[in-house]
Amino acid sequence: MIRKHFPSHNWFYVMIMIGEKQGELGNKEAMLAIFTEVYDSAKTITNSSQLNPELEDLERKIAIIKAGGEIPFRGVDTEIHSEANQEERLNQLKDRLNTSQVSNSDKNEILFEIAGLYSDKEQYDKALEYAARINNPDRLATIQGLIAKGQAKSSQTTARTTFATAIHLAQGYQQYELAFLQASELVNIAELQINKRLDQIDSNIVMIAHNLAKSINILWQQVNILARVAEVLAKVEKDEDAREIFDHAIQIAQKIERQKERVYSFKFIALAQARIKYFSSACQTADKIEFPWTKSEVIEKIAKLQAESGQREEAQKTLFNDSQMPLSMSEGNRFIEGRRINIICTEAVLESVINYEASQEKLNNLLKFARESGKQRDVNLLTIVTAFVEIGSIPTAFKIIDEMDDAWEQVRALWVITCEQYQKQEQVTTLNAILKCKEKIDNEKQRMESHNIVAYVQILAGLGEQAVSTTKAILTERNRQIPQIASHFVYTGDRSNFKKILIPCAYYMDAAYNMCEYLAQLYPEQASSVARVIIERI
Predict the structure, then answer these.
(1) Which of 144, 320, 352, 482 has its CA 20 to 30 A from that of 515?
(2) What angle, rounded to 10 degrees, do the helices at 178-195 and 527-536 form?
(3) How far apart are CA 231 and CA 128, in angstroms?
(4) C-alpha to C-alpha distances, 290 to 264, 266, 295, 384, nearest whole angstrom
(5) C-alpha dihedral over 52, 79, 451, 136, to 10 degrees?
(6) Are 102 and 444 spatial neighbours (Cβ–Cβ below 8 Å)?
């Protein structure tokens, strides 16, 4: 059964967009499958007359495709299980559901899959029973719509009751505002056009994104878009406009009541400013961050960007100013002799260009302290591993990883080495070690995150098909994690395997919009057409 984010008119439009893009990429069978599924689902279940014009147009397109004709283009995973496989999977999921280590988010995804499997088996009462135990409104709305689709084959009345519940739930919950998703992808496409130096840059795209930002009600999302718009404007030398929008974003961030969202907003603005070399402004924005460790991380990144731009002395000053910040007891042992470990490591990396031996000695001395830093030991060792990798001492980094006790921190450290090996066009040698460490991870959330890293490493190692298989083991936050994996297929230019995970992303509205961006990156000559499709849906 095809699984999707269902039901809503927004779902309908995004699914059509994905179907059309599949056709543009030459995958007409997938396009026909998506169009047919969308048509059948909408026509069979919904009573709404609002979709009628679109349904008539879709019906015409389906007829043209079946007749072998061409349609003007605007592009999920049909995973068919045998009964035996379904029963085996159900038993596995139920066993996992009963273990004490399962987190709430994992329970939701397990219940979601169990309900889906019962729906596939046409055991709708069982499906609804397990669905009722899901405490995430978004996932509950999705599975209710999925079950309703199956019920519609035998009972219109029952299906409509389930469908009505799904609509109520879907309207009551929204993680991202639609305007945020649309504006975000328009800015991404505009940035792509600038980076690729394409001739057909559409100046209206940024203006539309800016106008969309004004309609976003969730303040941190509005700040995010405004900062991105300002960053793009600066890249096309509209500095006055960019600075004005950055100031506006800061004013809005200051009004955010929830501290975590406020901190995130200032962090996002500061890094956007640093990427376009507004370093003084970036440091001023970073000063507004209330979490000392987060502020330190942002300052560190600003300094690195300064150094990369050739401003090494200014970078040293930025780090020195951070060293004067008071330390917080909540930071634990993330500092040594009154200075933050991440800042000392960054200083060592900057110094390595001038005096490699002195830099190495500083890191080795730091390593001695880190080994005795209590609960933060492996976190600190990871920071030092990253520094050794950045100065090119990968053998030393491997030795430090062997000392670490926390399997999750080992996986993260090995991932740092993987990226460096790939960038240097060296053979990726970390996959087996990461797989071994992953098996030692007890924390369920970290185990799920480790699947993501494994998929990344497989992609960089040239094992794209294995990475596609790995995505099936990811049960939590699929709307976030699968698009992240897709971005690595884009990075390596693996169009074939990218298409294989294009379909599951259609289950989630935010993931579907992310995939529009990645499609534009893989096919930059079509970036403008992707942007037009998004604009037409606004």
Answers:
(1) 144
(2) 160
(3) 47
(4) 10, 9, 7, 25
(5) 50
(6) yes
Q: Kindly give the pairing relationship between strand 335-336 and strand 339-340.
A: antiparallel
Q: Distance between CA 162 and CA 146 in Å, rounded?
A: 9
Q: How many CA atoms lie within 13 A of 304 on its CB side?
A: 16
Q: Return the amino acid letter for 537.
A: R
Residue with tokens 């496989």: 85
How far apart CA 193 and CA 187 sit, in angstroms, is 10
Residue 77 has pLDDT above 70, yes or no: no
What's the per-residue H, E or C state across 454-480?
HHHHHHHCCCHHHHHHHHCCCCCCHHH
pTM attached to this predicted model: 0.62
Return the pLDDT at 21. Answer: 65
Burial 145-156 (b: 16+ CB within 10 A, else e): bbbbbbbbeeee
Interaxial angle between packed helices 444-460 and 104-120, expressed in degrees from 0 to 180 and rounded to the nearest 10: 70
**What pLDDT does 219 receive?**
92
Closest-CA residue to 460 (of 419, 501, 521):
419
What integer best gives the mean pLDDT of the chain? 80
Please give the sequence-ordered ranges of beta strands (E in DSSP) within 240-392, or none if there are none. Answer: 335-336, 339-340
